[in-house]
Each structure stands twice: as C-alpha cells, then as structure tokens.
Amino acid sequence: MKQVMKLWPRSLIARILLLELGAIVVVAVVLPMLLTWFLRTEARRVQHRNLTHQARAIAANLRIAGNRPVLHLPHDLARIYASPYDGRAFVIVDGGAQVVAASPDLEQVPWHHAPRGDRSASFRAGAFVGISLPVRAAGQPLWVIVTQDQAVPGAILDDVMHAFVRRFDPVLIAVLLLLPVINSLLIARLVFAVRAASHRAETIGAQTLEVRLEERGLPLEVVPLARATNDLLARLQASFRNQAEFVANVAHELRTPLAAHRLELDAVADPALRGRLRDSADRLAHVVAQLQDLATLEAVTRDRFVAFDAGELARSIVAEQAPSIFAGGQTIALDAPDAPVMIRGDRVLAGLALANLISNAGRHTPAGTHVRVELDADGTIAVRDDGPGIAASDPEQALQRYWRADHRRSDGAGLGLSIVRRIMEVHRGTLAVASRPGEGACFTLCFPLAGSGSTSRS
Amino acid sequence: MRLLMVEDEPALAAALADALRGRGIHSDVAGSIADARQMIEAAQYAAILLDLGLPDGDGLSLIRWLRAQHHTVPVLAITARSALDARVAGLNAGADDYLVKPFDIEELVARLHAVLRRQGQLAAAELRIGNLRFDTVSGDLVVGEVPVLLTARERQFASLLLRRAGQVVSKQLAEDQLYGLTEPVGSNALEVQAHRLRRKLEAAGATVRIETIRGVGYMIRIAADSAAG
User: Fold this and answer.
1) Cα-based distances in Å from A3 to A7, A8, A9, A16, A20
2) Would you give the DSSP letter of residue B212?
3) Which residue range or ranges hold the OmpR/PhoB-type domain (chain B) (predicted)?
C-alpha cells in the first residue's frame, strides 16, 4: 500500500495526466471491442429482418392448385435465388419434411437443421444462417425456410467494420489525447497564478504586513485561500498595531509618575543617594523613551522619504549629542566632506539612528574616550570610538555581543540598537559593527544615496 | 514671577510647584482646560506651563484659544509623548517650546527663562555660568572677581557661546556672526579665536571650558573637574 502511495504523484498535473492516460488506454482497448460487438449484433438483427421479409414475400406467392400448394414466384423474386451466390436459397417443406418447392442448388444448403415450430425462428448451421417461417396453405402446415451463407457477404461486412474501427481508433485516441494537453495548460495557468501569489506572500515580513495577495487573476477556486490569507494578514497587522499602541500607551502612562519622581528626588538631602536615585530615574526615562520610539517606528511608512544632506544631518546630531558626551568626560568630532552628501530617507529617523549610536558610544566607553563620526561621500556614516572595544571574530557576532552586553546593562541601550536596526531596515540600508579588544568599536550606517535608483517600490 | 501650571496629575503638579518655589517661581495650578481658561481671564501670568494630555481635551486647543484671544503669554508645553513622536507629529508647532517628561528642573527653568527672554519679558543683562559673569550690554567679562580683557571679536565670540552655554554653537553661525557674510574667513580663523579665548579664561582661573567639536562647532560648559561635588 505504501509503495502504491509512493507511485502516486503529489503534483496535481502529474495526477491528472496519469489518470487521463490510464483512461485513454482503457478506452482505446475497450471501445473497438464494444463497437465491433454493437455492429455485429446490429448486422445480425438486420439480417434476421431481411430473411423474414424474404420468407414472407415467398409465402405470399403460395397458391393452392388441386388441393396442393404450388409456388409461383414472380420473375424478379425468382432471380434472387437463381444462382447459389452468397448462399441464398429457400425451401418450402411440409410437416413430413417433404419439399413442396425450393430454389435451385438446394443440396448445398443445410436446410434440414431448420426448426419447424409454430413461430418464426432463426437458425444457424455452419456458415449459413436462416429463418424458418410457419405458414398454412390448403389446410396443411408448411414452413418457408430461407437461408443465406454468412461467410461470403458477412466477410465483407466484417472487413468494412474492422477497417472502420482501425481508422476510427487513432482519430479517437488523438482526440482523447487532446484532453490531457488542454487540462495541463489550464492547470499550468492555475499553478502559475498560485506561484505568483506565493512569491508575493514570501515578501511579507513583520515590517511589510501591508502587502496583500492579489485576488484578481486567481481562479475562483483559489480565491478563498487568498482571501483568508489576506484576512489573516489584516488581523496580524491590527494585532501588531495594537501591540505597538499598547507599548506606546504603557510608556506614556509611565512618564508622568516618572516626572514627579524625578522632581521630588531633588529634595533628598544625601548627595550620593540623590545621585543614585537620579541615575536610576534617568535610566528608566531612557528605556521608556526608546520603547516609545520603537512603537512609533511601527507606524512609519516610506512615502514620506525625501532627499537630504547627510552632512547637515550629521552636524546637527553631533551638536545635539555633544553636551552629554562631554558631560561623560568624552570628546567628539565629525569628519565630513565639504560637498553635500545627498541621501534618501526620513530625516528625523536617520537622525535618531545616528543619535542612538553616538549615545551608545558615550554609554559604553570610559571617560577620556574620543568618539569620531565619519561621513563618507558614498552615504555611510561611521561612529568610531577608541575605547576598550570588544572581542569578536566577526561583525555580526560583535553586534550580538553588544546586544547582550546592552541587555545586561538593562538601561535600554539594547533597545537603542534595535531601533537603529529597524530604522536601517525601513531605509533599506545596513548597520554594521567592527570591534577588536583594545582598538575600540566602529558602528557603520549605510544609507542609500538619493538618485541611486533605489526609489520606493510598491 | 507667577506662572500658570496646567497639569491634571496632582503628584506631579505638587512636586513641580515645590521645585519651582525653591527657585523663586510661584505657580497656580489648573487641573483642566476649563479651569485654565477661567484663571487666565482672571489673572495675569508671566508664562503658562501646559501639560498636553488633559482630562477635558488636548492642551493644544488651549494654545489655539489663547492665540485666538490675542494673548501673547508664552507657553511651554510638557508632553508624555516621546521626543521622536513629538517631532514626527510636529508638536512644537503651537507652543513656544516643549519638554518631554520626565525632565530636569534646571532644564525646565532654563527653557522658561529662554522663552521669557525671547518674549522680551526677561531683560537679563548678565549671563552667569560657573564663576564667570558676562554683561551682554557692556560686553564686560569677569571671572570670579578678575575682569578679563577681550578684543571685539573675542567679546562677540564669548557672547555667542555664553548665550548658548551648554549647547553647541555651529561653526557656520559663529563665522557669520563674527565675520559677516562679506569678509573672507580663513579656514582656521575661528579656531584661532577659540584658542585665544580659551587661554585667557584658563589664565583667569575660570571653571568653564570652551570645547571644540571638530567639524561641528564650539561649546562653553562648566569644566568636569570643577563641576564634580
């Protein structure tokens, strides 16, 4: 059973082809046989009718002459039985099997086998078929027996029949073979449409939940599946939005008590305790802010993208971040080409990504570290520090390490990297990290240049 | 100085009022937009501290109402939205300035003063940072009790930096202010000015430092070693 199941193909086209070809083989064998049988039966019936007709015609010519039955065949009827060709012969016998009248060459015809009942009956003897028709003439029962040699005219009929079937069969099979071809074409179209929908479905990710499967062009039978998938996507998208909204609301609700807390801790007399409380309040505020940023990012779309100067952006973000970097005892500088570097994206988000990297560099390095922001004409912005760095063999691993280190710190800097990653995803850009112990770390953002052809795709 | 605080959260309102009182700023508290309207019509306030999330509506509607009444009282908005969200939503459109919760009381007071100054309500002639005092009218700079002699350009530069103490002054802005648009500027002219000013402040024993942010600009701030403790 299992082996049979193995032979049974999973492809719909293969299944249909297999079944249809099987059906064609059966039809090709059975149909000629059936046809032959039908034709034979029909021929036999026609023959029987013919013979009956002839027997009646002969019987109609029986006369009574001197109390004896006499046959007077008209000329045209007699001519049919004049020659023994194709075994046509007749005989009229009485109850004592005495011949009353007969056609010539009667001795060649096995008429003795004919039954003599009180109903018309057909019979068969060797190559001959015949009919025995009971009649009454001059008060005595007579039988008109008409025979025909089936071998001679029947052979012609059989030949015709066989030739017909032989020629009909290939035509029939050719017509039947058209069916699987047409079916395959139809199914190929269906499969093509379904595959196109599948490709579209493959592009759907957590960030592209707005994509929907195209229902138009799909066969009616597949539309429910596409519609169900689209409904599922809509529900997923709504639930993602709800989640983002929930996070934003929670963060929002946390801010007011946090603000009160932040103000009241100023009244703490012990400066060391006050400092610690302020640090923890600041960390909380940082996490809340980043949670809200992540939630806000969920609602960002690419249709707001514009071309802007990355140099101008870098200058304003470094200026914005410089006070906190200097407050941490570190220094910062920017190297950018004089000419504008036009990139394409959302100015606020790109700024947030850069600000997060600079702020991360400030948080992860000791006082005295120098942070260098480098803008290249190819649209990459690197944030490099000469801090202790981190040991990792490949950049992705380094990113993971930073990630985990961030999560251990639990001050939300890990969220900062998530935000940067998400922003770069939205921009179809990249985030890379390189780090070696003792040589600091370098985070690189790569934005698409404006006019580089990577305009938004629908 | 008396200001109106529109805040529906009693704990935050009380903490904020206390903190402000400690800095010589008295405040009345309104818990809703309706209360705030009545109080604005009844009394004269130097500024309004407005929480944007209020029980009877969006705080921005109060700003629209004020402007429709041709009230010029400066409004400092306080929002519980994220800074990114606020910027994306263009929140700062209505208010004179805005702060994101939670905030530092010093930051709030500084923003309040800045808003009042912009309105011409606070004619602060003297700027103070660390042990340094600068008279914006005469251009006199005093470190501790020691006057520091400055050239005209150095005075302009110091004024520019001190007005934005703790913030970065862009190179572009400094060049425009010091040299005007017609005068040709050498690539390191500004750095030379910064270097001279820095030397003079150090010599006078100032607790502030002029930081160079290469490629971006300059910033004057209280030096880390003197700020500690």
Assistant:
1) 6, 9, 12, 19, 21
2) E
3) 124-222
Tell me if A212 is assigned to some domain. no
Tens-level pLDDT at each residue, chain A (458 residues): 566 667 787 777 788 888 888 988 898 888 888 888 888 888 888 888 888 888 888 888 888 877 778 888 888 888 878 776 677 888 888 877 788 888 887 777 778 888 888 888 888 887 788 888 888 877 788 888 888 877 665 556 667 777 787 788 788 888 888 888 888 888 888 888 888 888 888 887 766 777 888 888 777 878 888 899 899 988 988 888 888 788 878 888 888 888 888 888 888 888 889 888 888 888 888 888 878 887 777 766 666 788 999 999 999 999 989 998 998 899 999 999 989 999 998 888 899 899 989 988 888 888 999 999 999 999 999 999 988 876 665 556 666 656 555 555 445 456 778 788 888 888 889 888 887 777 888 899 999 998 765 444 43
Query: What residue numbers bound the domain in which A364 lies?
Result: 303-446
User: Is A319's CB within 8 Å of B167's CB?
Assistant: yes
Q: How far is Cα A225 from Cα A228, in angstroms, rounded to an integer?
A: 5
Do residue A259 and residue B12 have CB atoms under 8 angstroms apart? yes
Q: Please tell me the distance in Å from A14's CA to the nearest CA on chain B.
A: 56
CATH number of the domain encompassing residue A65: 3.30.450
For chain B positions 209-228, those within 8 Å of chain A (CB to CB) are: 211, 213-217, 219, 221, 224
Contact B78, B101 (CB under 8 A): yes
Judged by a CB distance cut-off of 8 A, whether residue B18 touches chain A is yes
Considering chain B, tell me which residue range(s) the CATH 3.40.50.2300 domain(s) occupy: 2-118
Beta-bridged to residue B141, according to DSSP, are B134, B148
CA distance A368 to A330: 5
Domain B2-118 has CATH 3.40.50.2300: yes
What number of other Cβ atoms are within 10 A of residue A448's Cβ? 18
